Amino acid sequence: xxxxxxxxxxxQPDMVHRISHCARTMAKASYNAGSKVLPMIVHIFVEDYFxxxxxxxxDDDFDMGEAIE
Length: 69
Hints:
By secondary structure, the chain is mostly helical. It contains two helices and no strands. It is elongated.
């Protein structure tokens, strides 16, 4: 799915890890005990994974925790 959205391949493992971490945290929350479905909206800001004009990587400023609701 990330490839279909033209997410750079080198950014995909980090994104998958962040999304999975959030899902595990949600699943462990007491208010979700026994739930078989955890609704999750993921906002992906692709520009956070592209190289800056100065050649630096911009993903240091990205917080997936704020992007996932």
